[in-house]
């Protein structure tokens, strides 16, 4: 987070909203205020860097599909197909259709586990997730 904040500072300029003017030195040259917002060219101007980080991550990294990674984990742990009677069926499809509620609970627990292990990161309280290694690569390329 500290490194992402540094990148967010690099990619933005201090901005005095009162004078509506850039203040790259950190102090407004007109009103001498140091209570400045961050301007991200072409995107917006706002206090703080959290919104900048969120924007940079969204722009540059692919968020992960939690359904997809849970399904591929199930495929890896169990066989991809299962025999029911004389039918060879997709294990994932059978599990999902037999007990969709249990499936969702297990999926959410799996995702929470990845977040606890810091393999997945979220910047918006769990609406979207990113692989930690993708975020790390982005930091390395931009610092
Ligand atoms: Zn000013």
Structural descriptors:
two-stranded antiparallel ribbon; binds zinc ion
Summarize the helices and strands and which ones pair or pack.
Layout: H1 2-10, E1 13-16, E2 21-22, E3 37-40, E4 44-46, H2 50-60, H3 66-77, E5 81-84, E6 87-90, H4 91-98, H5 100-116, E7 120-121, E8 130-131, H6 132-142
Antiparallel strand pairs: 1-2, 1-3, 3-4, 5-6, 7-8
Helix pairs in contact: 1-2, 4-5
The structure holds zinc ion (ZN).
Polypeptide structure, described:
The chain is an alpha+beta fold. The protein has two domains: 2-60, no CATH class; 66-129, no CATH class. The protein is 48% helix and 17% strand. The chain is elongated and about 80 Å long. 15% of the residues are buried. The model has no long low-confidence stretch (mean pLDDT 95). Residues 16, 18-19, 28, 30-31, 33 line the site of zinc ion. Zinc ion (ZN) binds next to loops.
Helix percent band: 40-55%
Number of strands: 8
Bound molecules: zinc ion
Rg over alpha carbons: 22 Å
Strand percent estimate: 15-25%
Secondary structural class: alpha+beta
End-to-end Cα distance, whole Å, is 13 Å
Strands side by side in the biggest sheet:
2-1-3-4
What do the pLDDT scores average to?
Answer: 95
| Main pleated sheet | 4 strands, antiparallel
Q: Label the overall shape.
A: elongated
User: How many alpha or pi helices?
Assistant: 6
Number of domains: 2
SSE string, helices as H and strands as E = HEEEEHHEEHHEEH
Low-confidence stretches: none
